């Protein structure tokens, strides 16, 4: 499930994902990101993962291709998670983002949000 957080405004997208990530979830996420990228020089992303049990592999691959194509349009990106595979995922996706991805543990989510919103930790 994809939840748009209230910190979303201007060129910032803040989302929380829980449980299962489906193709419609990824499609919704990519459409929002694409719209922000068309309107802004850089788009900053806060991506929080909580209790994620399953991710549709086809959607994950499509999302990875989107990131490769649009990597230079990303600004500050923070991924917040609670599992080792999430940290590895952030490290892998970081290679195609303009400024990389900063990974934070779930306990440090306020720090991650501050980085995305203000650029400082």
How does this model look, in words?
This protein is an alpha/beta fold. The protein has a 5-stranded mixed sheet, sandwiched between helices. The protein has a single domain, classed as Transcription Regulator spoIIAA (2-Layer Sandwich), CATH 3.30.750. The protein contains 4 helices and 5 strands. It has helices at residues 23-39, 57-70, 84-94, 109-118; strands spanning 2-4, 12-21, 43-55, 74-81, 102-105. The model has no long low-confidence stretch (mean pLDDT 94). Strand 1 (2-4) and strand 2 (12-21) form a beta hairpin. 28% of the residues are buried.
Describe the structure in brief.
By secondary structure, the chain is α/β, with parallel strands linked by helices.
Number of domains: 1
CATH architecture: 2-Layer Sandwich
CATH class category name: Alpha Beta
Q: Which stretches are low in confidence, meaning pLDDT under 50 for 5 or more residues running?
A: none
Strand content: 25-35%
Q: Strand sequence of the main sheet, in spatial order?
A: 1-2-3-4-5
Helical fraction: 40-55%
Mean pLDDT figure: 94
CA-atom Rg in angstroms: 13 Å
Number of strands: 5
Order of helices and strands: EEHEHEHEH
Structural class by SSE content = alpha/beta
N-end to C-end Cα span? 28 Å
Shape, principal axes of CA atoms: globular
User: Major β-sheet, in short?
Assistant: 5 strands, mixed
**CATH T-level topology:** Transcription Regulator spoIIAA
């Amino acid at each position: 499930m994809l939840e748009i957080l209230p910190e979303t405004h201007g060129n910032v997208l803040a989302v929380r994902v829980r449980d299962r990530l489906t193709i419609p979830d990824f499609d919704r996420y990519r459409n929002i990101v694409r719209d922000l990228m068309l309107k802004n020089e850089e788009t900053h992303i806060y991506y929080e993962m909580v209790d994620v049990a399953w991710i549709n592999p086809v959607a994950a691959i499509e999302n990875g291709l989107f990131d490769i194509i649009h990597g230079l349009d990303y600004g500050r990106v923070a991924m917040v998670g609670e599992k080792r595979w999430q940290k590895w995922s952030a490290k892998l996706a970081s290679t195609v983002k303009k400024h990389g991805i900063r990974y934070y543990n779930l306990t440090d989510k306020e720090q991650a949000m501050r980085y995305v919103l203000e650029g400082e930790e």
